[in-house]
Amino acid sequence: MKFLHTRIRVSNLDTTIDFYQKLGFKLRDRKDSPQGNKLAFLEIPDSEHFLELCYSPDFKVDFPEDLMHTCVGVDDVIAYCDKLENDGIEIWPENWRSKFADPANRQMAFVTDPDGYEVEILPL
To answer: Among 50, 59, 69, 111, who pairs with 43 as Cys (CB 3.0-4.6 Å)?
Structure first.
């Protein structure tokens, strides 16, 4: 048995694809579902689990804060967060650079996608 994918509803497929591509995801495929939804499948190279984005013009994306999040592991959290910040993505905690400079603090950061889903960033 394997965990294969996670589906999230999004309010703008192209904006969300662009956001996740900045995080390092690759667009694997786009298609329409039999129910009329627009789907996009994103993956991280060398990862078996993929992210399925689902857009439906009749569905309003609205969920309680902190309902769910995804998580990516990276070799160098500081370099990764620096790249994202340079791409215009807000990293939190707000003072992540000074916090991560102290070896006593755990390197754990978050970004928020265009619909409010959180993406946790942890070291591998």
So the answer is: 50
